TrEMBL record:
Protein name (Swiss-Prot/TrEMBL): Succinylglutamate desuccinylase
Keyword Zinc-finger annotated: no
SUPFAM superfamilies reported for this sequence: Zn-dependent exopeptidases
Lineage of producing organism: Bacteria, Pseudomonadati, Pseudomonadota, Gammaproteobacteria, Pseudomonadales
Record-linked InterPro entries: AstE_AspA_cat, N-alpha-Ac-DABA_deacetylase
Cofactor(s) the protein requires to work: Zn(2+)
Domain of life the protein comes from: Bacteria
Molecular function as annotated in GO: hydrolase activity, acting on ester bonds; metal ion binding
Pfam family name, one: AstE_AspA_cat
Gene3D superfamilies assigned to the protein according to its UniProt record, in alphabetical order: Zn peptidases (3.40.630.10)
Domain Succinylglutamate desuccinylase/Aspartoacylase catalytic, first and last residues per copy: 29-266
Keywords, ordered alphabetically: Hydrolase, Metal-binding, Zinc
Amino acid sequence: MHHSTHELLSPVPGICRQLHSFHFGPRGGGKVYIQASLHADELPGMLVAWHLKQRLNELHQQGLLRREVVLVPVANPVGLEQVLLDAPLGRFELQSGENFNRNFVDLSDSIGDQIESHLTQDPAHNLSLIREYLRRGLDSHPAVTPLQSQRLALQRLACDADMVLDLHCDFEAVEHLYTTPEAWPQVEPLARYLGAQASLLATDSGGQSFDECFSLVWWQLQQRFAKRFPIPMGSFSVTIELRGQADVNHELASQDCQAILDFLTHSGVIEGQPAALPPLRQPATPLAAVEPLIAPLGGLLVFHAKPGQYLEPGQLIAEVIDPLSDRVTPIRNVQGGLLYARSVRRMATTGMVIAHVAGEKVCRSGYLLAN
């Protein structure tokens, strides 16, 4: 195992921030990148990463890793220190108000302009060329704020990986994941091993999130050059939502760690006989078919449906109760589907998203992500 430290921009004198990456297996023959807790108040992934670190080190010492695996257990030291009045605030940077998992650097246009005259009919050559220019572009891209410094450090670590696994969680949720329709055939075994109850697909959900900043650059280059040059899909990414924020325990973390290792064995990253593929719990559905349930007014929020429950159209999900007027407002879903996540808050404010239902019929377009 090799441990690297990456210095980040300091916000003020006297403060030092660092990213730590742990590298296992042989370099130069393919790469897997795994990070945890980019939203710093989402901690199940950090415990899974700790379990992975122990297991990957054993596999490294046994010589059973066929490709390099890079692990970043704490992907957001900036957000991790944001605690206000005993409440962790790890989703948005307090200085800028920006979501830590948005606005990663998009280099597809500049890379396309630079490589156009160097592309050939050899897919392997084009793959290597694009990765080289992607590395160069990220290395030369300026960082003028600590947040930009952190984003660039993470992108530089992952930009040449064959697969990128970004470990998150929701508020109260069942295990689910996000990836692209193009990557789904490669990701489906991971959904099976994890027992994901929802797999949500979108090529571009908006916001330039960490996982999509890798898959999108290859997809956009394919769209630009596919009729003239063979551009392989050089990387696929997946965001894994490890249930809810309170689901931080060794039993679940060990289970998820083993599922990821089974997937890496199935993918040929780890030498050995892969475990049998479990059944797919639910088929993949479009992210655009997810129905956000919104509170039309404020009040006490009382849920009648739990994460993991399949809902019929028009089912009662929750009630919003005004304790002053005694008004009770029911909240129902429009289309059937799986309730895969809900809020941890029990006082709703007007316009608040209280839950998400994974349906099958597309009901949204444009920007598809939560704030």
